[in-house]
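If you are new to this repository, start here. Below is one unmodified record pulled from the training split, so you can see the exact layout before writing a loader.
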Amino acid sequence: MKKYNVLIFISLLTTLISCGDKNNSKNLFSIDESKFKSMFHNSDTINLTLKNEANKTIDSVTYYNNDKKIGAVKGNSAFSYLLTNEKIGYQNLKAVAHFEGENEETTTRVEMLSNIEPKILTYSILNTYPHDISSFTEGLEFYNGNLYESTGKNGNSYVRKTDYKTGKSLQQVNIDSKYFGEGITFINGKLFQLTWQEKTGFIYDANTLKLEKTFQFDKNIEGWGMTNDKKYIYQSDGTEKIWKMKPENQKMIDFINVYTNTSKIKKVNELEWIDGKIYANIWEKDALIIINPLTGAVEALVDLSGLRKLAKVSDTDSLNGIAYNPKTNTIFVTGKNWDKMFEIKVNN
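And here is the target side for that same chain:
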């Protein structure tokens, strides 16, 4: 596929974003942005100096990125900052000027993109199965050969164990109507479930679906999708971030920012761990993205818009739900209030 088609497809997933906050014009100093790019990549070097319009005598300048010291210079000589080891996303730069017995800080923000152009992948439909059209799908996952689904909307949120071939419900656990259910994942013999804006999660026994614990998010974020790599849980929050959580204490220990080589990807939703990568739905987009879980770089895109024509759906019934079946090495996808679920294979 030609490069311009790749860029057109990526644009369907993204929205315009600003480059960030600018310096406070009242400061004596500001970081000189005159030679900054609009966007950076991790192979780039940023040359940092201060504007000194008040003509103060600067003894030295100390530079920070995301509150981590990255270096210092004597006087106001240039400081070269290589971005190689930094996380893609926003770089919050700070300079502390030491001058005439005083200190003053000034800040700015730049954005670093992935240096990988995503591949456009195709897919094949292997089977089509019935799906409960009343299910507002939020999470989809296989466990011990059965398909489990979580749904949203207050008063209609539940976790359901199903026979995926018939769509028949085998077991269902409803959650209180004050909660809007979101994504699920199985790890260490437990089933974790998120809620949307209540900052609350539930932990069930994976085999009985008996509720064992209710926990509160330790970050002020929304709950969207979940997956795991058998050691850590990965949780989306409706932005470009995917958080990394310890399942034993539900503490967030890190995050990645999801980016292509042209823009960040907002509204990352349902997640699934497949062969060392994170597959993700994007809210209101009929596509899958394949993410490097170490960097957040989008490595591939799968356009699933053709599935909409094969199911009974409305314009507002978004594609959502990804489940990998390890027994068949295939992927199951559906949508909110779709009457069908599709077993597909992504063609690499």
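Two things worth knowing about this chain: Residues 15-25 have pLDDT under 50 and may be disordered. Residues 7 and 213 are 45 Å apart (CA to CA).
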